[in-house]
Amino acid sequence: MTAYEKRAHPHQRQYGWGPDWQDGDIAFLKGLEEFNKAEYDALIGSRYLHPKATQHPVIILEHTKDYRHFLVTTVSAYSSSWENRFRPPWEQDAHRNKRPEDFRAFYGSEKPCKAQRHLQLANGGCFPKPQTSWVYTRGLHVVPSSALKAFDKANPRLQMEQTSLKDLLDHIKKHPGYASRWTHDKVLQMLEPRKPKTRRGSGSKESPNSAASSDRGSVATSSSVSDSDSEPSTPKSPTKMTWAGIARAAGCAPVSIAVATTNKSQSVR
């Protein structure tokens, strides 16, 4: 079984956190100032993701089975605008080491070659910068679901046209790096905390409440309490104490017997 599923059923929803992202959806990768420590360490601190890749719309390509992590690729204008006459990234000095054919253009943006088809959004949708929307097909990253939020520059939510999504994936699969997208060292480190802990009590006794919360995230139940804990406590004495003995004990008052009786009834319950 692989670490991801290609596409969920149309009615498949996440497990209660974040929007119900589906493959092909356009999400937004949060900015650095919005990352919590775990997100920053996994993505930026590890040097897995370049800081400039943040605060961009991304295409969701694949997801883990529990929807906690997504494989995404960035949609960017690559500093292209009317100021530089909408120069595409492969003609810019900053990207001169990237092959033009590794870029894909959305409809309205210049294509690197005539043989390529424009990428299309579903239902006639378009990005806010239709003349400068490109994808670098070698730029794939796995990110936690908490690092994504809704792309608020368009309403309703943008989504890739399915034929166009397949075309993009077919292009991406030709790159050697695609095979290791889920087995990259930094990705494995990111996925590791999700594995359930199986070790129990290495040198220290675990309380019923902590054991229950680690296994089920709920309060302890009777099944999580040991038999010795569920038994009523009895005084450990070499001789068996009787009520007659208590009555004959020196200085014993009736009120003490009543207290002892109350304690015994409480412990049995």
Structure, described:
The protein is an alpha+beta fold and 269 residues long. Helices cover 23% and strands 15% of the residues. The protein has seven helices and seven strands; from the N terminus they run E-E-H-E-E-E-E-E-H-H-H-H-H-H. Strands 1, 2, 3, 4, 5, 6 and 7 form a seven-stranded antiparallel β-sheet that branches. The model is unreliable at 1-16, 203-240 and 242-269 (pLDDT under 50).
Key terms:
single chain, 269 residues, alpha+beta, 7-stranded antiparallel β-sheet, 7 helices, globular, disordered N terminus, disordered C terminus
Order of helices and strands: EEHEEEEEHHHHHH
- Arithmetic mean pLDDT: 77
Structural class: alpha+beta
Apparent shape: globular
Number of helices: 7
Q: How would a crystallographer describe the biggest sheet? A: 7 strands, antiparallel
Helix percent band:
10-25%
DSSP strand count: 7
Estimated radius of gyration: 31 Å
Low-confidence stretches are 1-16, 203-240, 242-269
Give the amount of beta strand, in percent.
Answer: 5-15%
